[in-house]
Specification:
With 162 residues, the protein is mostly helical. The chain is built from seven helices and three strands. It has a three-stranded antiparallel sheet with strand order 1-3-2. α1 crosses α5 and α3 packs across α4. The chain is elongated and about 60 Å long. The two termini are 32 Å apart.
């Protein structure tokens, strides 16, 4: 059963509070990526994130996840292979397609991004009183449930994982 319609002024204040929180989370995400110390483009980072969470993938699978034409995915992957962040190998299940996977350096880069992101969120949460921290956790869980589960392609668009 839906909740009764909120007072417009209260809803507006709530919207502003959520947007402020969203800006803070976007800043956390941006800082975690900037700390990678690599000159990666957002599409390259997205490709690494997909491979980190999905495992090895063919070029066409990766292009589909990225929502780009395979030629664009090829260029991004060529640069990642040259940077020794991604490895191309023969697919034992289908020799017509190569598999792309993270190298140890690629995994370390992504693990560093995720670790920085988690550490920054933890730092922020430590500055909050425990009661507010728990209330925020519950409120964000409710917010996520009300929003619906985002498609993986939406998360990769922002390089968000973990």
């Amino acid at each position: 059963m839906p909740s009764p319609a909120p007072d417009p002024a209260v809803l507006d204040a709530d919207v502003e509070a959520v947007l402020a929180g969203a800006r803070a989370l976007v800043a956390v995400a941006a800082h975690s990526v900037a700390g990678a110390g690599e000159s990666l483009t957002l599409p390259q980072l997205r490709a690494l994130m997909i491979l980190a969470t999905r495992g090895p993938a063919s070029l066409s699978e990766l292009a589909d996840e990225l929502g780009v034409h395979p030629s664009n995915a090829t260029r991004a992957c060529d640069r990642l292979v040259a940077a020794q962040l991604v490895d191309r190998r023969e697919n034992p299940a289908d020799r017509r397609h190569l598999l792309l996977d993270l190298t140890a350096d690629g995994r370390a880069l992504i693990d560093g991004v995720v670790a920085r992101r988690r550490a920054e969120v933890a730092r922020i949460l430590r500055h909050m009183p425990p009661l507010h921290r728990r209330a925020l956790g519950r409120a964000l869980a409710e917010f996520a449930a009300a929003a619906g589960e985002p498609r993986s392609s939406e998360l990769w668009t922002l390089g968000w994982v973990g």
